[in-house]
Amino acid sequence: MNIKQLQILDAVVRLGSYRKAAAQLRCSQSTITFQLKKLEDSLGCFLFEKTGRHMVLTPAGQAALKEAQKILASHSVLMNLKGSKASLTGRLKVGVNETLLEFMLIDVIKEFRLLAPEVFFEVEILDAYRLKTKVKDSEVDIGITFNTGDYPAPLIALPLTASPLGLFASPTLSISESCFFLPGLAPELPLITGSVKSGPYKIFKRFLDGRGIRLGKTMQVGNVHIVKALLEGGLGVSYLPKICVEKELARGSLVEVLTGLGEINLGVLLLKNANKEESAAASLLSKMIRTKLLDPNLRTKDFFERTCLMKRKFE
After folding, report:
1. pLDDT by residue (tens digit) across 101-154?
2. Which residues have C-beta within 8 Å of that of residue 69, sequence separation ≥ 6?
3. 3-state secondary structure of 110
4. CA atoms of 315 and 312, how far apart (whole Å)
């Protein structure tokens, strides 16, 4: 598999025919056919299937195209840097929330290391408030963080996506559909959290107190992996970003529990300092993050109010 093959796949789908793709890429149609066959052999799947007189992407082809477009976007960024005075060397320090690092950014970092192996790459794990201060004071080059609502100059906050929150528990627990809507019905189970200072814990506790819903004593256990282990053991419930438990939900070891809190999303954003000169490495990583995480359907209007937990209002 190579960049040329990915470019051919993208061109065929974008232009709608082998002939048009060949014309744009200045090659023969036989080259298009040959390179797509090589790509299919490399991936071990068929990318297209014939429907009537047309060739359409298979489900595997759709997945391959999505990943190919991400790689091509990163490749384009790197090629734009080629020949510039700013080389991909030096030090790059990134501030990031631990949850985002583990569940959203690992693939981005892997790809960045392949593109910029000479950069000394450093990650500092920070909560959203400390990260904001570090970016403002130029102690980190860029930050990837959850939305806290206010970003005065010289901070530049670029919305990426909105991560849904939910209440999760083991399917072995007997939890009625109404127990997190009305007082007096919730089971005597602890609310489990990595930290009582986290936004998801605070907003859910505020919701419970407002509804007069009483649970058992809170368990603060330090990190999300311990939280998930305790949940799978049926020892309580936890309110946290859904990205943390997608694998457990898929295999059925955890389930989402309905609550009267409704749909709550936590904003994810890229944070920069307008007064700090951006290195070539920081520019590359920023563009790769936006390519990977930016939701094309994200509603940016009122984003900072709507996806900030501490500003969120509910009945």
Report:
1. 999 999 999 989 888 889 999 999 999 999 999 999 999 999 999 999 889 999
2. 10
3. helix
4. 10
